[in-house]
Records
---
Amino acid sequence: MRPQPQEPRREGSTIPQETTLPEYLALAGEPVEFRALIRQITYAAKWVAAELRVAGLHGMLGGTGETNVQGEAVQRLDEFANQTFVDNLLRSPAISDLVSEEMAEGMHIAQHSRGEYALLFDPVDGSSNLDANLAVGSIFSVRAPRDVLRSGRAQIAAGYVMYGPATICVLAVPKFGANLFTYEPRIGEFMFTRGPLTMPSSGGSYGVNEANESGWNPQVREFVSWLRGPAKHSTRYSGALVGDFHRILIGGGVYLYPGDVQHREGKLRLLYEACPLAFIAECAGGRAVSEECDILDIVPTQIHQRTPLIIGSRDEVGRFLPRQG
Ligand code: F6P
């Protein structure tokens, strides 16, 4: 029997069905410059999505033999995606500064120096999943150029594109919350799908790389044993932050990448991984903390700095780090 089409989940949205992302931004009254910025980000993402579908056919999987500024092996697709983002973003006069996981230095675009935005991004998050044909993502954060080294509360917008069975984009702006768009390849547009998203206040799963357990501090150990034991959460960990976070955004629960004895700051990058996802989580009613404070309260000192990250539903994150006062 053929499955019957179902009404998409609307979450009380007044956005008409079949609204494209550019139409949504216009309906939302976003300024022309911001709409142009999102257009360039989504162009880049469409190229990346198209390449991912055929990368195995023409030798685009595997490493380049180089290591990036983080000391991690660069995949061919990391390089391709970074260049694709940069090329597309350079076309937008609204962008004056770029910070990428794959570039040692931030890029100031002299001819666009009056542009109102800085874009901080991770072109391919979870690239160890590439060879296995599992979901990966691109994460981005939008700030004013002068705010790059301010706390995550200075972010203007944040989002990610996840390349899974469907290519989806979650875009968060404080006025309209976090909304989900699905790429419709037949018309070449991201279409409004659901939103504003609300993260459940608790959930049934947690994601963490348990192989690091011997290096965790007592606070992390106690929390994870509570998740496994009394809280009866199931483990769900794919090795790519975007997919693992998206599961929690939709279904609730918690993702964590804590520090360990050798890497006190953990693995994830503050400016283009933790901050944008924390911003999305807060827009959806969730929470994100380091081991000491809310992620969005950390004032960065350098563009590639790392942070422990515990992100997800209010109840689970609040159990790990209760709110002060
Ligand atoms: O960007 C870092 C990243 O690839 C994340 O996407 C992912 O959650 C994490 O690293 C996985 O790290 P590990 O392999 O140490 O579990």
Note: Residues 216 and 260 are 5 Å apart (CA to CA).
---
Amino acid sequence: MSDFPVFPSGFEFGAATSAYQIEGATKEDGRGPSIWDTFSRRSGAVSDGSSGETACGHYHRHREDVALLAELGVSHYRFSVAWPRIQPSGSGPVNTRGLDFYARLVDDLLEAGVKPVLTLYHWDLPQPLEDAGGWRSRDTAERFAEYTALVAARLGDRVPRWITLNEPWCSAFLGYGNGEHAPGASEGTPALAAAHHLLVGHGLAMGALRAAGVQEAGIALNLDQVDPATPDPADVAAALRAETQRNLMWTDPLLKGCYAAAEADTWGELIERQDFRRDGDLALASAPMDFLGLNYYTPSTVRAAPWREPDPARRTAMDNRFEGVARPGVRHTAMGWPVVPDALRRLLTSLGDRYGALLPPLHITENGSAEHDAPAADGTVHDAERIAYLESHLRAASKALAEGVDLRGYTAWSLLDNFEWAHGYTKRFGLVHVDYETEARTPKDSYHWYKAAIAASRNRAG
Ligand code: FCB
């Protein structure tokens, strides 16, 4: 038992999922279409041609999944609400049958002694809102606040922790910048408008959550630990541009109420044409949060690159003069992501160095690995690589705590194997294996390891 990483008493261990990745039942109980339903149908958008139409069947099996969480011994479960179940067309009155599902899930979690942690937006925008401009349009931010108020009015008294947006960087830059995610718009510059409107939407939603009197509210960001490939000043400057696009673009407005000083260098002249930015927006976006959620998987190493488009008039917001380089000498997961646990410790400590007293308490809201695991002949799943990944990252988190970081909890991604966005069902992140034919759930070795690690931490903390 003494082998497990050490955490203070009260430290929270959890597991996470998101609606579109696990629920299935995309046409049931009045759910409307989302941008991921539409995007998945586009040829070549999802590597195995699949969609979340059936996924893990969680919509009908949520009791079984709550039982798996209870058995795991987690203190909390992070899930997301599908906006198209609540407002099938993205605005207007609540679809009660959709909201009833989450009310049942929350009741079941509470009964099982597992704290619900609710994400309002994990990428499944109602399609009618996308048809009206999506996050390029300020109107979507206003609609998001209305939707938030509807969910909080029903669940605000029973859900103690709320997350407005999951990884807005992905929504903006993968959704509208390079088109890798829904809605699949590879438009470049509109990603900046989307990013700004996501920040405004977050701020408005924080207001709605405060009005509903929820206990804790914050956001989950996929911050990147970026290192320059060499000490050459050109590479160091490239790393700052990458850091601006990935991190400062979000953390400066959220925590300081201003855009990052390095913006102009990152986006060049484009940044002067951002007429969608209105006075007061960043005061909204910087509404105090009770915690900052961090999704961490892998770091980046970058070096300087030339502009892809030499003509400034034709450049887009995706042209930032940096490029990623490989990280040899470390293991890579099935996603091809380098495993560098100490980068998590550095990321956690660097936030305090940069923001000091402005930084709220931190939660790791996602961390985990996709591995090439499959059931053995007897049905068991031996995923030693995932155990090593979880253990090394928990150790890094525990070190950060010892170095003074105010880290309150750790959430493993994911409870279940699920629909991994543009990778479809080809990448498995679960602590629990899912057979997509039968929807049978089988806890992997990593589930049993995590359960023992949680129990050991509780026992030691007394
Ligand atoms: C994150 C997403 C999550 C999952 C993991 C692997 O970017 O928030 O839904 O896909 O990556």
Note: The first strand starts at residue 12 and ends at 16.
